[in-house]
Amino acid sequence: MVEGKPAGKGAPTSRAAKRKAEQVINIAEYREHAEHYKRLSGASGISKDCAAVLKNIARSFVGLAGQLDRLASLERNEQK
Length: 80
Known about the structure:
By secondary structure, the protein is mainly alpha-helical. Helix content is 74%, strand content 0%.
């Protein structure tokens, strides 16, 4: 079920096209989130432990963006 609709219902779109459109948005969003958490980790008044967790969250978002970027590259190469 996507967006509250049963599978097979709604406007006809290919899964690949929809997935690619979502990835473009998600890659950018993940990178924005990474920057946000990186900034938070440098804020004054937070503990070293909290800063370390925030940095790890930022790295996780960077990793997710990289994986989605890699997936998009693989899908482009497979279509050739």
